[in-house]
């Protein structure tokens, strides 16, 4: 075998490897963190402002869990328009959203949730100012 044949075989094998790698990578699912990711990026400055407003509060909602429930404790104050988003990083089909109205203790049954990591986003208004708290929690049963 001469150099020409060796170089040709090496190039054909390399091109085959690159094409195979490209086909495998194109078949992979790539999920965004949220379906409206690009719209959220446009509104990012408002989110930063809302998180800053929440950090300034003396008493803010807190997250806890017991054996049967994931609990959001809401302190006394002028909290309104509360929305709780629970999102699974590995499966967006299991994301849940709840409206919290007229209660100081909002509970989600753990039977509705899978064991694992959840991202928490609590959005609300306090005395007319938008606020947002983000956190993560590991749900245990």
Compact summary:
The protein has helices at 3-26, 37-42, 44-56; strands at 62-65, 69-73, 79-87, 96-100, 105-109, 116-126, 129-139. The protein is an alpha+beta fold and 141 residues long. The chain has two domains: 1-30; 37-139, Immunoglobulins (Immunoglobulin-like, Sandwich), CATH 2.60.40.10.
Structure keywords:
141 residues; alpha+beta; Immunoglobulin-like; 2 domains; 4-stranded antiparallel sheet; 3-stranded antiparallel sheet
Number of domains: 2
Order of helices and strands: HHHEEEEEEE
Helix percentage range: 25-40%
**Terminal Cα span:** 66 Å
Total of helices? 3
CATH-assigned homologous superfamily of the largest domain: Immunoglobulins
Low-confidence stretches: none
User: What share of residues are in beta strands?
Assistant: 35-45%
The CATH first-level class of the largest domain comes to Mainly Beta
What CATH architecture of the largest domain do you see? Sandwich
Give me the CATH fold name of the largest domain: Immunoglobulin-like
Instruction: Please state how the strands of the largest beta sheet are arranged side by side.
Output: 4-3-6-7
């Amino acid at each position: 075998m001469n150099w020409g044949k060796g170089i040709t075989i090496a190039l054909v094998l390399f091109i085959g490897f690159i094409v195979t790698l490209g086909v495998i990578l194109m078949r992979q699912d790539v999920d965004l963190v949220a379906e409206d990711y690009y719209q959220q990026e446009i509104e990012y400055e408002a989110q930063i402002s809302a998180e800053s407003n929440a950090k300034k509060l003396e008493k803010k909602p807190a997250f806890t869990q017991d054996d049967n429930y994931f609990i959001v404790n809401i302190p006394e104050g002028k909290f309104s328009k509360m929305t709780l988003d629970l999102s699974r990083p590995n499966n967006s089909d299991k994301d849940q959203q709840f409206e919290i109205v007229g209660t100081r203790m909002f509970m989600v049954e753990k039977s509705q949730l899978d064991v694992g990591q959840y991202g928490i986003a609590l959005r609300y208004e306090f005395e007319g100012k938008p606020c947002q708290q983000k956190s993560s929690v590991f749900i245990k049963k």
